[in-house]
Amino acid sequence: YRNIEIIIVDDASTDDTLSVVKKIDDPRIKCVPLEQNSGPSTARNAGVKLAQGRFVAFLDSDDEWDTKKIDLQLTAIGQQADPGNIVCYTQATMVGNGKTYLLPTRGKKEDESVGDYVLRGNHGAISTSSIMLARKLALANPFPANQKVFEDWDMLLRLEDIGVDWVYLDQPLFTWHNDFRENRLSFIEHDGSAWLDEHKHYLSKQARLAFSMKGIVYPLLRARQRKLYSLKLLLFAFLGNEITFTRFLKYTTKIFLPPALLTHTKALLVQRRTNS
Q1: From CA 83, how far away is CA 136, in angstroms rounded?
Q2: CB 29 within 8 A of CB 50
Q3: How does 44-75 read in b/e, with b if 16+ C-beta sit within 10 Å?
Q4: How many CB atoms lie within 10 A of CB 112?
Q5: Of 275, 250, 191, which is closest to residue 226 (Cα–Cα)?
Q6: 261 or 32, which is more confident?
Q7: CA atoms within 13 A on the CB side of 245
Q8: Are 237 and 243 spatial neighbours (Cβ–Cβ below 8 Å)?
Q9: Which residues contact 99 (CB under 8 A, 6 or more apart)?
Q10: 181 has pLDDT over 80
Q11: Are 177 and 63 in contact (CB under 8 A)?
């Protein structure tokens, strides 16, 4: 599908984006530099405002689309009764830290909330780089400009709240490069407690427990902060049947054991497996 416009929003990057893009001789490409680094929400919203087409789709700088993605999504959306009220998402090929796998493993069930689908378990995901929706829908429901993490979940929950229909394409139509990098926004130290307080009315009890693990406990473990608070949330997740006893013990150990001792213990376990 070639009837597209490509809007590259350069979020005050330092990787020579503008000069690289200017060398590409294609009238469909527009490059918009932001004066200061403002985060993914502001960059995506700026691109939506400049777009001229009926539908928009997002592509983060470290992801890659399959050449058939736009064509297949437009076809699927066009087959729906109300294309203007559709959010179409796809499966991804996840590549990172020496592993390659597909996610999600299934689409969202009709009677399943978005919060339960993306937060509970390891089967669900609606990645920003997989989404296509009507530009009017994106304009009316922008990414939250004051957030640099969980901004995608925020938008998805608000879209669900207004009653959009979800269309899932069970094909890996983009590649998500998920290697660990210290400067990745998803790995920056953060505590999602405030986000959960603000959005808990969108989430079931189980989804709230799941978010407490993914959005609060895991980041605090990486930062080694608020250990007793993390233990409290771990206990709630275990008592609420959101994590197993084995995982409860695993993360409790991570909270209180020094990193050097954890690394040494892992090395010993690996050595024992090798010897056996």
Answers
A1: 11
A2: no
A3: bbbbbeebeeebbbbbbeebeebeebbebbbe
A4: 15
A5: 191
A6: 32
A7: 0
A8: yes
A9: none
A10: no
A11: yes
Q: For residue 75, is it left (φ>0), alpha (ψ between -120 and 50) or beta?
A: alpha
Instruction: With residue 17 as reference, give the H or E element that holds it.
Output: helix 17-22
Beta 86-96 vs 165-177: how paired, if at all? parallel
3-class secondary-structure state, position 101: strand
Q: pLDDT at residue 266 above 60?
A: no
Taking residues 15-29, report their average pLDDT.
Answer: 90
Report CA 57 to chain centroid distance, whole Å: 15
Q: Tell me the two tokens of residue 140.
A: 């009316």
Amino acid at 150: F
Distance CA 5, CA 19 (A): 19
Q: In the chain, what is the greatest distance between 2 CA atoms, to the nearest angstrom?
A: 63
Is a pLDDT exceeding 60 seen at residue 267? no
Report how far apart, in Å, the C-alpha atoms of 95 and of each of 19, 175, 178, 179 are. 28, 7, 6, 7
- Tokens, residue 147: 């957030």
Spell out where the chain has E strands. 6-10, 29-33, 55-57, 63-65, 86-96, 99-103, 132-134, 165-177
pLDDT tens sequence across 48-104: 999 999 999 999 988 999 999 999 999 999 999 999 999 999 999 999 888 999 999
- What pTM does this model have? 0.86
How many Cβ atoms sit within 10 Å of the Cβ of residue 151?
22
Average pLDDT for the chain: 89
Interval 115-136: pLDDT, tens: 999 999 889 999 999 999 999 9
Q: Which residue has the higher pLDDT, 108 or 19?
A: 108
Whether residue 187 has pLDDT greater than 70:
no
